[in-house]
Amino acid sequence: MTDDREVSLSSTRAAVFSPTTGTGTLAALRLSAYPWAPFPDQAAWASRLKKILPELPGLRPLRVAILGNGTLGLFAETLRFWLALEGFRLESYLAPYGAFRQEILDPHSALYGFQADVIWLFATGRDVVPKVDFGASSDTCSAAVDAVVSEWRNLWRHLRANAPVSIIQNNFEAPSVRVFGHYDGAVPWSSANLIRKINLLLAEASLEDNVSVFDLDHAASLFGLCQWHEDRHWYQSKQPFAPDAFGTVAFQAARFLGAMKGTAKKCLVLDLDNTLWGGVVGDDGVAGIRLGNDPEGEAFLAFQDYLKSLVARGILLAVCSKNEEAVALEPFLEHPAMRLGLQDIVVFRANWKSKVDNLREIASCLNIGLDALVFADDNPAERELVRSVLPEVAVPEMPADPADFVAVLAAGRYFEASTFSGEDNARTRLYFENAQREAIRTVATDVTSFLQDLDMEADSGT
Questions:
Q1: Quick one: which of 273, 297, 265 has its CA closest to 377?
Q2: Which of 264, 257, 73, 67 has the alpha carbon at shortest distance from 166?
Q3: How far apart are CA 344 and CA 413, in angstroms?
Q4: CA 197 → CA 191, 201, 241, 428, distances in Å?
Q5: Alpha-carbon dihedral sign for residues 395, 396, 401, 404
Q6: Does this model's pTM top 0.90?
Q7: Which strand ranges, in their side-by-side order, compose the sheet holding 267-270?
Q8: pLDDT tens for residues 354-407?
Q9: Which band of pLDDT confidence, cut at 50, 70 and 90, is reported for residue 6?
Q10: Which runs of consecutive H residues, i.e. helices, occur in 224-321?
């Protein structure tokens, strides 16, 4: 059973499509597929994709070697489907069952002959439970954890010595069974706490060794550990986790791989009324909009707090609202509860033009593609218009309840990241300044007035 946050990820999955080309079929699949669908649906979509792949020459090739102890063929087909929706044509290599370590250690193995762009060490919690006695000392537990992390780091070094390749390493999901119940969470020698410590040390090591960590533990938790650890499929066919979770993991992985290859979204374009606050500022006035002081108002504040955190990590925010500009600006300037300020908005478009036209202008002003935009609007008609005219723009189905806004955007993983640096923090200011220059250039009538409006000063320093 799914909730509203899940349903919102796919806006029109119940629609009927009759595409006649590979591109049309892929567009239909993009609208109708959803990550948490059970495995039979995922397999059907993957099969449909395989039939149209020859008709999709525009997909970017991506060579991924997937190395793990489980049977990974069915998962790889699911991943192929979700990567196609991201614009990639997956060419995959799977190590022989149970032999991935030998493949890594042998410089003449088929793994290196494959010449992967990315090598993914697809381990799971089944692979890493260190054996320590109940009641073992903290030193013994730490030594066991260090040995596990050292083993993976040694494999990373062998990979790097034999291939100039990007490496992804899974961290490890928690066990669903606790021998001591909740007491397992209190002692260093329990499997749960050993895996937690391994994950922390593995993350620290990955930063030192320039390895990307795929958070399998988080994916398993979102899916539900009791359903994830489906032992029947492991005993029968060595599936690493429940096949019904393949779509969830493959979708997240596709967005993660896309981020590594530069296809993550860059800008979130926001409506205002009933999106950033409750009510219509033009009708209710600044004092009448809902922002704090009641459950709905608190939900809008929480949404703004989330948006503020996106700005802090370098995601651009823009406004696209059908409104009088002066009226639309009032809450930013006058409402005491507003979390967002005008300094957080790189482009502000409040007018009575089509939102399609405004989105085109926003992308042009920022010098980014339409495929770098995510458009959040409470109005279903506006969402459908943008989807139909600008299919490159990502349009999440915003729920009726603002309490679910954050969950919907987070579940879409539009702004997936594989790294973070101080430069990401500075990006918003850079784009803001560029957008100001573009706005001035657009309204300037000649070069002289353009340069005057920039208010540039000469620097005589050396």
A1: 273
A2: 257
A3: 21
A4: 10, 6, 22, 35
A5: negative
A6: no
A7: 345-351, 316-322, 267-270, 373-376
A8: 999 999 999 999 999 999 999 999 999 999 999 999 999 999 999 999 999 999
A9: very low
A10: 225-228, 231-237, 246-260, 281-284, 295-312
